[in-house]
Amino acid sequence: MALVQQIGGRLLQLVFVLWAVATILFLMFRLMPGNPLAAYIDVTFTEEQQLALMAKFGLDRPLWEQYFIYLWNLLHGELGDSFFYRQPVFDRLMVLLPNTLILAFGSLIIAYAFGIIAGSYLAWKRGSVGEQVAIPLVLTTRAMPEFWLGMVLLAVFSFWLGWFPAGGMRSPGAEFDSVGALYTSRDFLAHLVLPIATLAIYSQGLPLLLMRSNMLDVMREDFVTMARIKGLSSFTVVVRHAARNALLPVMTSFAIGVGYQIQGNVVVETVFSWPGIGRELVNAVAASDYPLAQGAFLLIAVVFVLMNFIADMLYGLLDPRVSHA
Amino acid sequence: MKTLLYAAASAAVLAGLAVPAMAEGDKIREITITTRPQAAQPSEFQFVQIIAQEWRKLGLDVKIDVMPWEQMADLVWYNRDKWDVTAWQMVGRPERSDPDELIYNLYHSSTAPKGYNFLGYSNTDYDAVVEAQRIETDPDVRQKLMKEAQAILAKDQPAMMLVHPKSTFAYDNTVWDSASVVDQGGIGIKNVWTFMGLTPLGDKKDIVLNSSDNIQGINPLWISGSTDSWITELVWDRLMRIGPDGLPQPWAAESVEWNSPTSITVTLRDGMKWHDGKPVTAEDVKFSYEAAMGEEAPMYKPFVGNIETIEIDGNKITFTLKNASAAFLTSSLAKLNLIPKHVWEPVLSDLAGSEDNAESHQEAKPIGSGPFKFSSWATNEEVVLDANKDHWSAPKADRWVLRIVPNTEAALGMLRSGEMNFLSDFPGDPKILVAASEADGDLDVVSTVDIGFRYVAFNNRRPPFNDPAFRVALSTAINRDLIVGAAFKGFAVKSNSVISPALPFWHNEEIVEFETGVDLAKEILEDAGYTLDGGKLHYPDGVQETLSE
């Protein structure tokens, strides 16, 4: 019963956070310099057209009225129509969201799998030559800007070696019966390699370093010493006793990392011409397309908040010492 | 007129009071030039730096204000009295091959309050000339009027023309026969004639090209993004098309004949079919024009505003115009997409009662009658068109695949690696393209002088820019050859007219060359009564600075 209450409380908080985000977004875009009609300025753009567009976009109404219409629509799950594309924001985002999630989750899973294993190994081999080489290397990959790394991978593996295509999600003109058929095709996977590698290389540093330092802490604890005294092999000690305990904070950072990863996609999606939410967001902001920009940000906020929520809940399950009280 | 007033005012002052010999007005305030950021518009940013530097030599304080396009458009367009000088550009489009749109809308005084004359130029002589050319149907008389209008602008310098840039595109000459590439005057090799004509040399038969912009919509009743227009031009036919020579020629029309200056009869080509197999009829043509005349396609409305009535008789369509119009062929007959009545009539009647118009109606599978048929569209990724082999001008290629590539470097890499075979959008430095072509040997790069242009607009409403002599002096201070070389790396020609040399019939050749230089500019300022005091430029005697903060 207490658990249900806790979850209920957290969900209420979540709704409050999303309302705050929605409000900030609304104000932010309207206070930003610029004008959504700028995209239409043309020699043949007449005064009547300007007025008609203002009315069509609802920009002729007072700000408070726009705000309440916006909130009312949000409550009904209605994100409105994009100014720029004249199509429902929700439909556009739902087409693009899977593309972004594949990149974000795919790269994070690779980064974390690698980071956890390599981090444990480096903690185990602390003080070795291998570690002395590996740590600066990891720090270097952490410090490389994503767009630079992406361009380097593109130059080497696409333009020079010709192993992978240079952009997009499919070969020019390749048509598939369904989205599912596209995502499971060889063609798609070939296009996925470079962007996912860029993001994975960029993100593996955090789990690796986190895992390593947690391991070092855990390995100083009494129960590890106890396990060693029992005469267990050092592999068993590291994997069965130390790593399992060091894993908890890393798992939390994974959940939060998903949110960050979606933001980080902006750059990678542009470098690799990947049709995702990140590019859509940047274009929408540049075009003062309020409904689309608000919708995209809100969607990212929802993913972010949800992942935090899941992390909180998971933590309690994985480590009974943490209570939700 | 103004100078006369100033002269009268200073004469009165001289008569009444003992004024020192070195009479002068207030110091001119710091003037601001707005431009877009270097990352977005490197050439523009560069020429604004050069211009500011030259103007400072005249004794002016010049500030450069860098802002993104949305913000700049908001300032210049919606706050017409709040800016001094701004960099600006016009892009070339096939319909602009008739200069009416540019010469009229840019500087006629009627468009100053809310239309495209955002810089607020007002000259009754100019108005009269551009009104006259609009209704003149004799090409030779109209040519004279066009040249006169250009001469007036050259004398008044409401804006300072800089260059007509060159459009630079490239293609893979191992995939496409070079002889089948058409260089359209003022537009470049990226045009419908090239896409219809491109002849494959080997097994690769898909035209794979790029755009850095997303597609907004594929809609024959909505003028959306410029990349979108590449698609509409291929999927939908028009009664006429702008030919490679820049002149309108019959297209879906078998023939076009003027009955009188206000009446024109079009004979529809036989045997045309919509992509769903139904025949194209005169009824469809009439419907297409009436759709634009109604309320559901507001962006096309200005192009049909001059049509009084449309009558059909068999396969003949007669348009009666309200006023004689020389540009009607280009701006209406070569502009409007022919749409199937059986598809759009129910859509438009549904829309009639609603808030939305046809611009928000995206067909799942657009139906036109053009040389290419719509095949698929993946959001922000690609658009695929199939060749319409039944068309009377059927393309030689199999498909037309437009890839959305926001990364310019990657676009060039794709062209070089063969992932793409036609570079239709390259916002980068054209010199890089030329170098790539020299290194690889299988790329052809073609540069064409554009109809569009780059310029610097003066706010004619605000002193000191309301004084033509001041504007002329500022324009004289700038060496255009320097701009071409330094800001455009030679990929442009210098300009002093809104009508590009790419349109030789209308372009006024005589005004292009004029002497420039800071010393000459100083002389003009001095003659107009401006004085230097402590190295700073002052207004003529008696003129006060009303706008300083």
Folded structure, characterized:
The complex is a heterodimer of chains A (325) and B (549). Chain A contains 13 helices and no strands. Chain A has 325 residues and is mainly α. Chain A has two domains: 2-75, no CATH class; 94-169 and 195-318, MetI-like (MetI-like fold, Orthogonal Bundle). The mean pLDDT of chain A is 86. With 549 residues, chain B is of the alpha+beta class. Chain B has three domains: 2-164 and 451-547, Roll (Dipeptide-binding Protein, domain 3); 174-236 and 370-441, D-Maltodextrin-Binding Protein, domain 2 (3-Layer(aba) Sandwich); 240-348, Alpha-Beta Complex (Dipeptide-binding Protein, domain 1), CATH 3.90.76. Chain B has 17 helices and 20 strands.
Helix percent band of chain A: over 70%
CATH top-level class of the largest domain in chain A: Mainly Alpha
C-alpha Rg of chain B (nearest Å): 26 Å
SSE-based structural type of chain A? mainly alpha
**Which fold name corresponds to the CATH topology of the largest domain in chain A?**
MetI-like fold
**Are there runs of chain B of 5+ residues with pLDDT below 50, and where?**
1-5, 11-21
Largest sheet of chain A: none
SSE blueprint:
The complex is a heterodimer of chains A (325) and B (549).
Chain A (H helix, E strand, L loop, with lengths): L1 H30 L15 H11 L5 H13 L13 H36 L4 H15 L2 H15 L18 H5 L2 H18 L1 H15 L2 H8 L4 H38 L5 H10 L3 H29 L7
Helix pairs in contact in A: 1-13, 4-8, 4-9, 4-11, 5-9, 6-8, 6-11, 8-11, 9-11, 10-11, 11-12, 11-13, 12-13
Chain B lengths: L1 H15 L14 E5 L6 H15 L5 E5 L2 H10 L6 E6 L9 H6 L18 H12 L3 H18 L2 E14 L19 H6 L8 E6 L14 H10 L4 E3 L5 E3 L2 E8 L2 E6 L13 H12 L7 H4 L2 E7 L2 E6 L6 H6 L7 H11 L20 E7 L3 E6 L11 E6 L3 H10 L4 E2 L6 H11 L2 E7 L3 E6 L9 H9 L3 H7 L5 E3 L23 H10 L3 E3 L2 E3 L11
Parallel strand pairs in B: 1-2, 1-3, 5-14
Antiparallel strand pairs in B: 3-17, 4-15, 4-16, 4-17, 4-18, 6-7, 8-9, 9-11, 10-11, 12-13, 13-14, 19-20
Helix pairs in contact in B: 5-6, 9-12, 15-17
